[in-house]
Amino acid sequence: MATASYKVTGMTCGHCEMSVREEVSEIPGVTDIKVSAETGDLVVTAVGEIDDAAVLAAVTEAGYSATPAFRGGSSRSAGL
């Protein structure tokens, strides 16, 4: 399992979180998504490598922008 964190800008509510979660969940291999409009944190867990470009494109598709913040493996995790 791999984990990557991102900072998302523009989210203000639960609907925003849902939109990001729906788009990111379409990326093959993604197994868990944690997103917070309050903090702007997005944490993606996947089987295998996480494609930053795919995650950033999914966030853009949801109507927001994001930048990579952290990347970890199975021994390290990022939480909200």
CATH C-level name: Alpha Beta
Mean pLDDT: 90
Number of strands: 4
Task: Provide the number of structural domains.
Answer: 1
CATH architecture: 2-Layer Sandwich
Low-confidence stretches: 74-79
C-alpha geometry:
globular
The number of helices is 2
Q: Measure the end-to-end span.
A: 18 Å
Radius of gyration: 11 Å
**Helix share of residues?**
25-40%
Question: Which structural class fits the helix and strand makeup?
Answer: alpha+beta
Major beta sheet summary: 4 strands, antiparallel
β-sheet strand percentage: 35-45%
CATH-derived topology: Alpha-Beta Plaits
Strand arrangement within the widest β-sheet reads: 2-3-1-4
Fold and architecture overview:
With 80 residues, the chain is an alpha+beta fold. It has one domain (2-72): Alpha-Beta Plaits. The protein contains two helices and four strands. It has helices at residues 14-24, 52-62; strands spanning 2-9, 30-35, 41-46, 65-72. A four-stranded antiparallel beta sheet has the order 2-3-1-4, with helices on one face. A hairpin with a 5-residue loop joins strand 2 (30-35) and strand 3 (41-46). Helix 1 packs across helix 2. The two termini are 18 Å apart. Mean pLDDT is 90; it is low at 74-79.
